[in-house]
């Protein structure tokens, strides 16, 4: 990843071993990982749904800002994505 700042030009996506499913009983999204499940907050689920490897972080933030025009989102989204990467939920797809 040298030479790239993933928070600028990286495209976040869920790792292949991670699946996100809606749990109708709990009425929340659940992240399914090898040997465990994580019940997601509404905010976390909304961010992770946008992590498809096709959008940059800036594009992801722009999508969220259109939905929540009065919110300051950039720092929180970047911090959440950094945590999601460290937890091995998300990985970066970097431009060639």
From TrEMBL:
It comes from the Bacteria. Pfam families: PqqD. InterPro entries: PQQD, PqqD_bac, PqqD_sf. GO terms for biological process: pyrroloquinoline quinone biosynthetic process. Pathway: Cofactor biosynthesis; pyrroloquinoline quinone biosynthesis. GO terms for molecular function: quinone binding. Keywords: PQQ biosynthesis. NCBIfam families: PQQ_PqqD. Monomer. Interacts with PqqE. This is Pyrroloquinoline quinone biosynthesis peptide chaperone PqqD.
